[in-house]
Amino acid sequence: MDKKSKIFVAGGTGMVGSALIRKLYKSGYTNIISNYYKKKPKINNDYSVTFFRLDLTRQVEVEEFFKEHKPEYVFLSAAKVGGILANNTYKAEFIYTNIQIASHIIHSSYLYGVRKLLNFGSSCIYPKYAPQPLKEEYLLSGQLEPTNEPYAIAKITAIKLCRFYNEQYGTNFISVMPTNLYGPNDNFDLKTSHVLPALIRKFHLAKLLRENNHLEIEKDILKHNPDFKNNIDNYLKENGITSEYVEIWGTGNPYREFLHVDDVADASLYLMKNFNYDDIGEFVNIGTGKDITIKHLASKIKDIVGFKGDIKWDPSKPDGTPRKLLDVSKINNLGWKHKIELDEGISITYKWYTNNYA
Asked: 44 and 108 in contact (C-beta within 8 Å)?
């Protein structure tokens, strides 16, 4: 990619998209465009990025956007995402919305001559009981985890779209499968977030409650839910947050791998600059190659946040897939390895959260 190439980051207000924009800017790219729909951009204008209001679920809008702006390179980082609760609650929305976004962007990239596209998948595409660590060839070798099956099917569809457009039309669309991501601009809403940001916020609120800092608790809740009109004590109770303990779903026994979002942005730019579809194949995993139990993760976050109470587990709630550790030998052999370790990454993320949300 030339430093002046027009680059479209789809979903630039999200965690992955904003990390990509930061990385591109720091790497000297000066012609970046992105989109927003409901979530207005918070990124510093010094990043040389222009945002356009665009609904990626509307095919006509997306095709008109590509026809007018003619991006040369596309990072498809836009998606509707969430944790177990969100995936299990909004099943139809997750499969429908994510298939729409992917198909509209991939097809428009083909129609209007995009030179290269990088599509972001998710480690949930792998079968629930696939051997560990998860190799790329395990895709579609068994049944998916039921709690995130709609999202996984949408992501698998996007991978196959890229592959078959490459095979039929000669495009150069590549796909990456990141492990569980976290970092600045993550979603901390307790009803829709993933486990790591949810735990950061739960322990932070419990810490404030233990300190009797009700004013900061109220500010935090209203920051996330501006229209909040319910009883704050009930909100905390419903989410298992007290001054004495924090309640967490499941047994805490499943293992998960976590990657800081700045690392996935670094890996994505590295792949986009140096490798084509013929080099990578259908997709490549991006992760650390190391995992941790949810129990250990919770204890680690509790210590970093500074909450002095206890942790209670609710085994009546689902655990999800027992383990999701990616085999990262393929991307390591391509010359890339992660840089940010988990303790450092959690500390960075908690500091960002307290500066921007709390």
From this structure: no
